[in-house]
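call fold(seq) -> tokens
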Amino acid sequence: QVQFVESGGGLVQPGGSLRLSCAASGFTFSGHTMYWYRQAPGKEREWVAGITSSGSITNYADSVKGRFTISRENAKNTVYLQMNSLKPEDTAVYFCNRGDDYWGQGTQLTVSS
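ret:
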């Protein structure tokens, strides 16, 4: 079945960097646009970034544009989110998704000094 396993989260100081990974299985990964979402405490889940199946087109929420970079390795069925210049407001659980109702457990990012 469709599965996503997110990893790479942790505690980072403001201004720091981190790379998240999402390993996908159970479907033809290379045929799907992939997305990163996040959910902060007490808030609704929000879209962060997207990347087309070939990786040729990416787009970002305004709140992360210029700081985050989404990428993928189709040979490894993995999508990444490189996060730089992190801010406390980036604190959230981060999820990857292919645009439907399958979700993983997410990975927690905490940005705090």
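The first strand starts at residue 3 and ends at 7.
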